[in-house]
Write a structure and sequence with these properties.
Number of domains: 3
Oligomer: single chain
Number of strands: 16
CATH class of the largest domain: Alpha Beta
Strand order of the largest sheet: 1-2-10-13-12-11
Distance between the termini: 48 Å
CATH architecture of the largest domain: 2-Layer Sandwich
CATH superfamily of the largest domain: Barstar-like
Helix content: 10-25%
Order of helices and strands: EEEHEEEEEEEHEEEHHEHHEHHE
Radius of gyration: 26 Å
Number of helices: 8
Largest sheet: 6 strands, antiparallel, barrel
CATH topology of the largest domain: Barnase, Chain D
Strand content: 25-35%
Structural class: alpha+beta
């Protein structure tokens, strides 16, 4: 009989990083609707009111008049205070110019209509100019000027899709959950779902939420199927493939992540982080680490290979540049000074070059090299 894949444990906000020590409420054979990729950024229409377009925005506007619409990439709006000084930035991504009309308040300016997605990095939901502000300066992702506008109006927004509850199948209830079910209580409690390996050890916490219902399971007598309404972000759809590679425990074979898609490699980094032994000793200063670059064909692959170079198969050493900076400070397996020999670096050199983009592009090979060098890593390309 196949071991259960999931455990349902009592939710405890004070034991966030000790899920395996919480009371187990059920062991479950399988899960449905557990994973969900983040929704695509909501597309909406915006009007740049009183706009004086420059650079790429002016070019896209001219093209939109001839073709009906035109892409412009990223528009960063710098909010100005009453003295015209910058206050904060707010960005639109994957911007497409749809058209324009004369500005009613100033016929020398235009009201430019665009369709775009709000950047996930925006500091707030919608930009607001302070009193007496002249409006916004507009520029591209790398700082090139695209003009100015006096205000921004959001004119249409799509409704986000609603997600269904997840179901845990073939569960053996116990403890407080079993008592609540036997008593016929409507409040079945709040719980966390853990993905297990073949030995019953926690691979990763998957989701947290409220148990909302149960029915007898078709998987066998005494088993139940549970419905759980998540309140935390669900794992990505690539996660189960990663968890299957961790089924026998932490990998001992290097490079298993290489068979995954870029999305799967990103999910691998989350699993590697969840299994990193916090508080362990660092390798001695001056240690040389060897990065196998044969499969570094995308940015997540670089971080997978770096984690493996420092901490072995299944190892973690950052899933982004800010995280790598934190890891280089120590207590993540290595401390400076250190040497990193990047073998087969030409693979990344050819695959991580500049690519056409409509929003934020990934880091290039040259930028990664510059970053590591600036962080004090003795980097040697082989």
């Amino acid at each position: 009989m196949r071991p259960p894949k999931y455990a349902l444990v009592a939710y405890d906000q004070d034991a966030e990083y000790e899920a395996e020590n919480r009371e187990t409420w059920a062991l479950c054979a399988e899960a449905e609707d557990l994973c969900a990729d983040p929704p695509a950024p909501t597309r909406a229409r915006y009007t740049l009111l009183g706009c004086g377009p420059e650079g790429r925005l002016r070019t896209a506007l001219t093209r939109s008049r001839a073709e009906g619409s035109a892409p412009v990439g990223v528009l960063v709006l710098t909010i100005l205070d009453g003295r015209g000084e910058p206050v904060e930035e707010w960005a639109l991504e994957d911007v497409r110019v749809l058209g324009d009309r004369p500005c009613a308040r100033d016929l020398a300016l235009r009201d430019v209509v665009v369709e775009a997605s709000e950047s996930a990095d925006n500091p707030f939901d919608y930009p607001q100019c302070p009193p007496l502000s002249p409006g916004y300066r507009i520029h591209g992702e790398t700082g090139e000027s695209h003009g100015t506008c006096k205000d921004l109006a959001r004119t249409r927004e799509e409704e986000p899709a609603t997600e269904s509850s997840l179901r845990l199948l073939g569960c053996t209830p116990r403890g407080a959950l079993r008592e609540a079910m036997d008593a016929g209580e409507e409040d079945l409690g709040h719980a966390a779902v853990l993905r297990l390996d073949a030995h019953g050890r926690t691979v990763q916490e998957a989701v947290e939420g409220e148990i909302t219902a149960w029915i007898p399971s078709a998987r066998g007598p005494g088993l139940v199927d549970l419905a759980l309404e998540p309140w935390s972000e669900r794992p990505p759809s690539a996660a189960p493939e990663v968890w299957d590679l961790w089924w026998d425990g932490r990998p001992t074979e290097p490079g298993l992540w290489a068979r995954l898609s870029p999305e799967g490699r990103s999910a691998w980094l989350g699993t590697a982080l969840a299994n990193h032994p916090h508080g362990g000793p660092d390798r001695p200063a001056g240690t040389t680490f060897h990065l196998d670059g044969r499969h570094v064909t995308d940015l997540p692959a670089f971080f997978c290979a770096l984690g493996e170079a420092v901490n072995g198969p299944g190892g973690y050493f950052g899933w982004g540049l800010d995280a790598v900076t934190d890891c280089l400070r120590g207590r993540w397996g290595a401390r400076q000074p250190l040497t990193l020999v990047w073998h087969d670096a030409d693979v990344a050199r050819s695959c991580l070059g500049p690519t056409p983009h409509v929003s934020r592009r990934p880091w290039t090979f040259e930028e990664l090299v510059a970053f590591l060098t600036e962080e004090g890593v003795d980097l040697r390309l082989a």
